[in-house]
Amino acid sequence: MKHGAILRKRLGLGCHGSYWPTPYSRKGLVVRLVYMMCALGWAVLTGFGRFRRDGVVVLCYHGVSAKQRERFAWQMSKIRSRVVDLAKCRASTSSCAKLPYVSMTFDDTFANLMENALPILEQYQIPATIFAVADNLGYLPRWELPYGHPESTEITMTAEQLVAVSKNPLIRIGSHTLTHPYLAKIRPDQLKKELIDSKRQLEQLLGNPIEDLALPFGSYNQEVFRTAREAGYRRIYTVDAKPVNPMSEDPVTGRFSMSPDVWKIEFLLTCSGAYTWLYPWRRFVRFIRQRIANILDR
Q1: Domain range holding 104?
Q2: How many domains does the chain have?
Q3: What's the pTM?
Q4: Tell me: the pLDDT tens digits for 84-103?
Q5: From CA 63, how far away is CA 185, in angstroms rounded?
Q6: Are strands 256-257 and 235-237 parallel, antiparallel or unpaired?
């Protein structure tokens, strides 16, 4: 391995995203605490979200295990009065101006949601969008996961279960592609197949239009956005940590990675938009890393 490649690996260069027990724990305890202090400062400056003008905080969950159910219930109890269906909010003539609002999404369609999340959503009448990997219904995840990740042993909903869940008036089903690849890395013909065929298969299965797309691993480029719009998706969800203006015509929607296992203060701060500062910070870090990578490749 070349010295440049070794150093890029140590710096984390080229990493498009991965799963962690909590979204704020990947850098260790010290960095996590620094992030939280920055979020507290941002929360004070924005009146804990009340002075913001940039819209709805969209949360991105994956599975909810039996051990996480109680913590998930606590989280939902804290936001139940201000959760909105983002699609309906965009379609309405209202401005959704009373902030901070929150919107709920779940990636991968794990079957454990049926016992541990959906009953709680129904209890509090919280709407949510669930994104299905069309060719992975009823299987363990067949996409890349870190070794030992807890969700590597969690089965996804079967086609029959997904049909049943889709009939719940609180639930909207979206596409998470056919096979959950890094979309920015695949060929154009594969990209079209992942986006078009997954939409078609889910529409045939559910009998409803599929207008929402969540990008696996948060991997995208401009070709991904263009192809998704041409395929007919009206809303395209990333994992860029930025709120969304529900009245905007832009189909690209940022989300904040979330887990029932985060600290309670982290959850409350996230829902108030206090971690919004992470988006420009991460863009800056990626820029610096790319510059270093370019120098190493010379």
Answers
A1: 52-91+98-269
A2: 1
A3: 0.87
A4: 988 877 665 455 555 579 99
A5: 26
A6: unpaired
